[in-house]
């Protein structure tokens, strides 16, 4: 049984694990906690399916019904047991794809959304590049070996962190088991168990994806949350039966060495914003959520917080209207952004101070400072 297996403070102890490349990041910011050969190109195997899922979530209606063609039904490797002319809801197809790691499902998804696996793989690569996974190239939607299909531990962590912010993605990759009902034949239903053995066993585990081919070895992208700390661990080309233990060791190291620092609470007023055309001159604003950032070691000075309110708002304004944002920066680069919300309503009307404020802003704009 895999549980908390590691409590080592010395990161050098992690270097002796069998995985060829590894990385541990904090999910909300992407901050690297530990890495080993994290930029080296590797075969990603079925961890590829994270991107297959992301494109489906972002570009399709998950209630669409998909008809499986012969090409999808014939795909080799791990399977959802799809047959030609089977019909499933897209949401059930991608859920089974992630739990059972069905290669057949990835082809059905690619054919439906892009017309071919090749075109879908091109879209997957474009998306990877757009979110910063610039050392990744996909040649298919499943992760089957191909010399032109590669990624890195760091890029997989970036893709996982991007997906982690999507609630549908998180719900699917965190599902331990589910019975999938076919639309046709209507009598067909199969219960699938997630291939990620950390789910339900490792405290706080909530995703994401296993991978294995002979060329790739054992791979795993694992995520977990404890006490507000969200971590993603990636191990690539681990020895047989080691990927879950080694991912757990990485996560344990992170939970022992990372803590979340609260800069502002979600109910804390952090800014006053002028109101144009309102009965009140200004309104107060608060963050939509707690403003937290992860500290490990002595790197607190590398974080900074910038409050970016709207210069003014026009009445009427309802409470909880977005009126700016708070930016969290690490080494000067934005790693997270939280909306600022109006903490009160501002009805339309006249206020002398508001009138002069508008006059000031008008002159300011005419002078080119808007």
Please name the defining characteristics of this protein:
alpha+beta, six-stranded mixed sheet, five-stranded antiparallel sheet, 9 helices, 27% helix, disordered N terminus
Classification by helices and strands: alpha+beta
Q: What percentage of residues falls in helices of 4 or more residues? A: 25-40%
Question: How many individual β-strands?
Answer: 17
Percent strand: 25-35%
Rg for CA atoms: 24 Å
Termini gap: 61 Å
Could you describe the largest sheet, including whether it forms a barrel?
6 strands, mixed
How do the strands of the widest beta sheet line up side by side? 14-16-17-12-11-15
Low-confidence stretches: 1-7
The ordered string of helix (H) and strand (E) elements is EEHEHEHHHHHEEEEEHEEEEEEEEH
Number of helices: 9
Basic shape: globular
The overall average pLDDT, rounded, is 92
Describe this structure as you would to a colleague.
- The chain has 370 residues and is of the alpha+beta class.
- The chain has helices at residues 49-59, 70-73, 90-100, 103-114, 117-130, 153-164, 167-173, 243-257, 352-366; strands at 21-26, 32-36, 65-67, 87-89, 177-181, 189-193, 205-213, 217-226, 229-238, 258-264, 271-276, 282-287, 291-296, 303-309, 312-314, 322-330, 333-342.
- A six-stranded mixed β-sheet has the order 14-16-17-12-11-15, covered by helices on one side. Strands 2-1-9-8-7 form a five-stranded antiparallel β-sheet, sandwiched between helices.
- The protein is globular, with a radius of gyration of 24 Å.
- The protein starts with 20 loop residues before the first strand and ends with a helix.
- The model is unreliable at 1-7 (pLDDT under 50).
């Amino acid at each position: 049984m895999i549980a908390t297996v590691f409590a080592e403070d010395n990161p050098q102890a992690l270097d002796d694990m069998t995985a060829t490349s590894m990385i541990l990041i904090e999910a909300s910011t992407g901050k690297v906690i530990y890495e080993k050969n994290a930029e080296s190109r590797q075969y990603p195997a079925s961890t590829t399916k994270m991107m297959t899922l992301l494109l489906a979530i972002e570009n399709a209606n998950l209630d669409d019904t998909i008809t499986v063609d012969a090409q999808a039904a014939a795909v080799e490797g791990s399977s959802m047991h799809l047959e030609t002319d089977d019909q499933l809801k897209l949401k059930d197809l991608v859920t089974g794809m992630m739990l059972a790691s069905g290669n057949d499902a990835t082809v059905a998804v690619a054919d439906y959304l892009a017309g071919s696996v090749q075109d879908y793989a091109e879209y997957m690569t474009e998306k990877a590049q757009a979110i910063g996974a610039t050392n990744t190239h996909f040649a298919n939607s499943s992760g089957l070996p191909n010399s032109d299909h590669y990624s890195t531990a760091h890029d997989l962590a970036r893709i996982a962190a991007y997906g982690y912010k999507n609630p549908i993605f998180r719900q699917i990759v965190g599902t331990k088991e589910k019975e999938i009902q076919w639309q046709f034949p209507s009598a067909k239903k199969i219960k699938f168990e997630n291939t990620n053995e950390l789910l339900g066993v490792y405290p706080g585990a909530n995703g994401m994806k296993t991978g294995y081919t002979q060329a790739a070895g054992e791979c795993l992208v694992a995520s977990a949350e404890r006490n507000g700390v969200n971590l993603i661990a990636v191990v690539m080309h681990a020895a047989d039966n080691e990927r879950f233990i080694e991912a757990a060791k990485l996560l344990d190291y992170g939970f022992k060495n990372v803590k979340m620092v609260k800069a502002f609470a979600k109910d804390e007023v952090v800014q006053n914003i002028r109101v144009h055309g309102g009965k009140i001159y200004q309104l107060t604003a608060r963050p939509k959520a707690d403003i937290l950032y992860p500290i490990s070691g002595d790197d607190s000075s590398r974080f900074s917080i910038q409050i970016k309110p709207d210069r003014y708002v026009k009445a009427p304004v309802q409470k909880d209207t977005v009126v700016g944002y708070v930016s969290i920066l690490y080494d000067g680069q934005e790693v997270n952004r939280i909306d600022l919300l109006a903490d009160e309503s501002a009805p339309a009307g006249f206020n002398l101070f508001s009138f002069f404020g508008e006059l000031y802003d008008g002159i300011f704009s005419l002078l080119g400072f808007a």
